[in-house]
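2024-03-11 09:14:02 DEBUG pipeline.ingest accepted 1 chain
2024-03-11 09:14:02 DEBUG pipeline.ingest length=229
2024-03-11 09:14:03 DEBUG pipeline.predict start
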Amino acid sequence: MVCNETAPENKRMILSSLYDSIVLKDIVQRNRIASPIALDKVLDYLIANSSLTVSGNRIANILKGEKIGISAPTVYEYIRYVEEACVIHKVERYDISGHKLLQYEEKIYVPDLGLFALKKSRTKDEFNLIVETLVFNELIARGYQVYIGKTYRGEVDFIAERNGVRVYIQAVYLMETEETRRREFGAYQAVGDHYAKYVISMDPITADQDGIRHLRLMDFLIDDDSVRP
């Protein structure tokens, strides 16, 4: 429906209508929300901050600054409702060296970038977010179980597991500088196993490094076998 529209104002109107339907007719009614305004503010924050860590306390404090009283437990309850409505995906962090899931360190992703475009409040890393979100959603569509990788040096964007096999993926908009290249390929220095490792970006020309594959985003999206163990 949105894709068939050419005028930006029509696209925005359709997205706004869909958003209001999800909030008012689905989440509010199904869960009997007493304060739709508070829910709407929580949802705004979640969508606009896709790819960031979820913090109920932080969201509650931000809303208090806007004169909306809400507790952190209620925020987490609303997040659960929003996740059940498939408006966000909540992704757990996995300690690669300790081989365990980390509690209370989940990140969120929007399954629909149209909603992000409607509610976005970020500009600095917007394109990195879009690439990261596209890669995440494609991995989910291909049947992978996806985690955020935690190492003693930092983070690996995605651990993707399917049929007992794992791959690691870094997702970035462009490798414009040597610093970016060192950061993306260097994220794997603290990973001690031998599972396949990838960096996915929108660069027109790719260059593998130290056994780590560099893939163009379009090649990854159109070829289901572009990422292999």
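2024-03-11 09:14:41 DEBUG pipeline.report The radius of gyration is 19 Å.
2024-03-11 09:14:41 DEBUG pipeline.predict end
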